[in-house]
Amino acid sequence: QVHLVESGGGLVQAGGSLRLSCVASGLTFSRYSMGWFRQAPRKEREFVATISWSSGNTYYADSVKGRFTISRDNAKNTVYLQMNSLKPEETAVYYCAADPRPRPSIPTLRLGAFYESWGQGTQVTVSS
């Protein structure tokens, strides 16, 4: 059974930084593309970033490009999201997710429906 556990969320002032971590178990981590999504109150879940299992290529939502960095450490079964220059509107629950597909297309890596397993989320609150 796949288990994903996020950590690193918290309260930060606008312009500040946080680093989220997601530890995975119950899967061959190196063979999964990993993504980060977020959901703000009364809003739909949205894609933030993803990193493919095969190439290590990374893809970002336009709104976070240049400020967020996704990375992975296969030896530790962990994916990270470094978030800089945070904005109040980025207050949300952040989720990591695992995609088992061997050859996912780039557009579909941005879609939550293709991710098989999800963590419980970690709250990020950005104060103005």
Outline of the structure:
The protein contains one helix and eleven strands; from the N terminus they run βββββββββαββ. It has one helix spanning 106-109; strands at residues 3-7, 10-13, 18-25, 33-39, 46-51, 58-60, 68-73, 78-83, 92-99, 117-118, 122-127. Strands 2, 4, 5, 6, 9, 10 and 11 form a seven-stranded mixed beta sheet that branches.
Radius of gyration from the alpha-carbon trace, in angstroms: 14 Å
Number of beta-strand segments: 11
Question: Which stretches are low in confidence, meaning pLDDT under 50 for 5 or more residues running?
Answer: none
Helical stretch tally: 1
Quote the average pLDDT. Answer: 96
What is the helical fraction, as a range of percent?
under 10%
- Structural class of the secondary elements? mainly beta
Query: What composes the largest sheet?
Result: 7 strands, mixed
Percent strand: over 45%
Measure the end-to-end span. Answer: 40 Å
- From N to C, what is the helix and strand string? EEEEEEEEEHEE
Based on Cα principal axes, name the global outline. globular
